[in-house]
Design brief:
Length: 314
Amino acid sequence: MEIRLLQYAVEIYRKKSFTKAADSLHIAQPSLSQQIQKLEKEIGVRLFTRGQGGVIPTPEGIRFIEKAQQILRQHDDLLREMHENNEGIGSELTIGAPAVTGGHVLPLLIKNFLKRFPQMKVRLIEESTEELENLTIRGDVDLSILPLPIESNQLATHLMLTEPLLLAVPREEKDWMSEQIRHLVRSADENDQVTEGTIPLAELSCSPFILLKQGFGFRRIVLDLCADSGFQPQIDFETSNIETAQSLVASGLGVTIVPKMVMRQNANVNPLYIPLQSHPTRTVVFAYLKERYLSLAARAFMDVYEMERLETSR
């Protein structure tokens, strides 16, 4: 059985179409169909059927695709490892990160990485946490920066950072604010970014919340914090951008919780930040597939981050 036949079957599974798979593989569709028929004859089972949603795998086809993906990953890993043993660090690294985190930790990190390895090409993929987990499992991303918890047990993690979470509220009093929140808002100077006082999250049980959309790991963190405080938040707005969430808060439309790293610096036009009494944090990790060879470039990228962190802490 040839490796390319496994590649053909996996691509048809991904595209759910012989025509789209043929375009992606740069071969003629009739030729692709013939090759799959040849493969099915060799293994003695039918791999695909046509359904309403396009081409779908048979039960035997699902099992075959799972094994084929494992073989292809091992094949690619072996080639990459042998190449790196002979030639040294490669020339390309693909990094995945959600926008909440990527825009704050990656620019300087990538800059310093490229200073040390100018021959490298870094490709950045920004997606939701859920999609990044899928991309990392499929091997489309070498390394992802993700918040805990991670849903898949197929991913290994390496600690990156742990940071405080802060409540963001409007700077003007609103009818839905509790008296404790009103007091902190009234007491804050116009130049204050963060209040001196803290507040229990339960004080926000009647406040309108602005959250990230489904699929973002940080949304789960906020919902879990609210559940631990005994309430389900009233969600008035959802967005895929933490900056948009903070702008909506600044406009008086609700409250949100943000990681400290994304806290805005200009106090006059931004939310007021209040520490929570429970002192919640979030932990961010490098994530990669356990069963895959971790490239020298990915290892070097994590090493550069660690050196940055040590230099900053001195």
